[in-house]
Amino acid sequence: MATFTLEFEHPIVKLEDKIEELKRLSEVQKVDFSKEIADLENTVVSLRGEIFSRLTPWQRCQIARHPNRPYTLDYIRMLTTDFVELHGDRAFGDDRAIVGGLARLDGMPIVVIGHQKGRDTKEKIARNFAMANPEGYRKALRLMKLAEKFRKPILTFVDTPGAYPGIGAEERGQAEAIARNLREMSELRTPIVVVVTGEGGSGGALGIAVGDSISMLEYAIYSVISPEGCASILWRDPAKAPDAAHALGLTPETLKRLSLIDEIISEPMGGAHRNPQEMATTLKAHLVKECSRLAQTSLDELLERRYEKFRRMGVFEEGQ
Fold first, then answer.
1. Measuring CA to CA, which residue among 205, 243, 206 is closest to residue 61?
2. DSSP element (H, E) containing 255
3. How far apart are CA 71 and CA 90, in angstroms?
4. Dihedral sign (CA 169, 170, 173, 176)
5. I want to staple 210 with a disulfide (CB 3.0 to 4.6 A). Which of 104, 185, 268, 313 is the partner?
6. CA nearest to 201, candidates 176, 166, 229
7. Checking DSSP bridges between strand 98-105 and strand 108-115, what pairing results, if any?
8. What is the pLDDT of residues 28-73, one digit of tens each?
9. Which residues lie closer than 8 Å to 166 by C-beta, 6 or more apart?
10. How far is CA 7 from the centre of its chain?
């Protein structure tokens, strides 16, 4: 069970603590509290369902950023076998904010790539909070080209606040690296399956998110900017982040309605961090299905559909 509690989960946690207390008293005092415990457990299920059925966009952001949420390496461990991590962009260095390599999904050889956050302070710093430098995107592209060469499908897991905006990153061509990935991914002659597992932040997410199948986990977010960044620009006040989250339309339901994603993948009640193994089972079924579906499409048709998919995104009006 997750130890980190979000503010809106406090009523649930209080009931869960009461259940644990009754179980402890039952053992110590040899008193049967089974009926009371069962009633409280039913109340917890009902309350959790009620709370999670009316989450605000800002609360969705908090779940997407939950520190116990599974990250790319967790999914790779639970979903694949024979994973071999590959390092470096062959130009500058190895960016640990993006991981990737060779693996097997249900016996199928694949190339898997994703943003990787850290669990403790030391790892968060080493992974740069999943905010990649240019060498991270160049490493990702190198692996994608490898997949194309050997005709292996590509899986990408998106989970980043955004690309790193530091001076060094800009000096080494951050914008060019992301732009090159967008262009090259649009033309890669191999299937690409994208899943936004947590945060999908701006160009930092797009740098590995051009694909034939684009899905989001139920409580993930995907946006042109973070709510805090949007609030700082529009209102000069980061405290307006909840209002910005609502205005940005960053939830899977909104994005699917706008045809920016293809599918929403259900999470365990309370989020993927409540039951990572159940989440992995659901996600694996989705990935196997999509890889099998795309494998039946000719490469020429695959690229044509990919092109049309992104051409249809967005709405605009031409002036007189």
1. 243
2. helix 252-257
3. 25
4. positive
5. 185
6. 229
7. antiparallel
8. 887 788 888 898 989 988 998 899 989 999 999 999 999 999 999 9
9. 133
10. 22
Alpha helices (H) in 113-201, listed in sequence order: 121-126, 134-149, 167-171, 174-187
CA 184, CA 176: separation in Å to the nearest integer? 12
> Residue 204 burial by CB count (10 A; 0-12/13-18/19+): exposed, middle or buried?
buried
Three-state helix/strand/coil letters over 76-134: HHHHEEEEEECCCCCCCCCCCCEEEEEEEECCEEEEEEEECCCCCHHHHHHCHHHCCCH
- Determine the number of helices (DSSP H) and then strands (DSSP E) in the chain: 14, 8
Please state the length of the chain: 320
What is the per-residue pLDDT across 6-19, written as a single tens digit (0 to 9) for each? Answer: 888 888 889 988 99
Whole-angstrom distance, CA of residue 141 vs CA of residue 59: 33
Pick the closest to residue 133 from 98, 82, 83, 184 (CA basis): 98
- Report field, pTM of the whole predicted structure over 0.70: yes
